[in-house]
Amino acid sequence: MLTFIIITLLLAGGAAIMTGIAIASTWRPPWQIVLYGLLLGSADRFIKYALFQEALLSLHDFLIDSLVLITLSFVAFRLKRVQQMITQYPWLYVRDGLISWKKLTK
Question: How many CB atoms lie within 10 A of CB 46?
Answer without folding.
Answer: 12
